[in-house]
Amino acid sequence: MEAQNSEPRRFRAYAKINLSLEILNKRPDGFHELASVMQTVGLYDVITIKPADDLQFDCNKPELVDENNLVWQAALQMLEVCGQDRARGADIYLEKMVPVAAGLGGGSSDAATTLVALNELWDLNLPEEQLEAMAARLGSDVPFFIRGGTALAEGRGERLTVLPPLPMVWLVLLYPEISLPENKTAELYKMIDRHDYSTGGVSRALVATIRRGEGLAQSLLYNTFEHKIYERFPQLDQFRQAMVDAGADHVQVSGSGPTLYTMFEYQEDAQILTERLTRAGYTAFAVSTIQP
User: What whole-number distance in Å separates Cα of residue 187 and Cα of residue 101?
Assistant: First the structure.
């Protein structure tokens, strides 16, 4: 079938931070029950997509081009669900700018954005709820990125409650360039035991604050993984200290790490800290919370 209207379309695949991440218990299926308030931020990959005779995938980082990449898996799932007779093929190019395996959800966001992009490219008109169900088969936090914004994620991460938009907050993200095992997150989960479980009360308090339209108090930010990450990767503490020495107040870990973040009310303050860290040789980004 000949490709029609070959103009490429560009989609931003936004990263996220976890404002809270609580592990409630271990489920009979082996997964952990979570409560996490997630928020998209203005760091993103770009997915460029256009019609093609068959399915093609490439990336500015060649090492990411393989059959296990979630972009490719999302495209295959769309083909399977929608049927070859409705699909027209697609040329998908991923420009990767979000650090890989950083606790920022970059790969999950790429997958969700691919589902959204193909739904639009192929005029399938699948509702968001169906796209979220498809996303859940790709990974626990992939469904969040179908809509993005601010949401409470429960279950394995697939049960979502959309929350009112946060007042804009500026963040400095620091990506520690340290050697980590490929199964980092699985290792950290194995370190969690029943003494680390919580009731979800922190996330509920954070949700209540957001619904009242109040500003974020850093005292409400919490991550069950935090102590485990520093225990497993003690070299991470030097990066946390670098942020503090450069002017950060509260430094948090996003997701299963290793990315660290701190929050500011004003863009200028975030940019000043980012410039200090960059001059010192660290990989840092100044971004705001966003509502896609």
Answer: 13
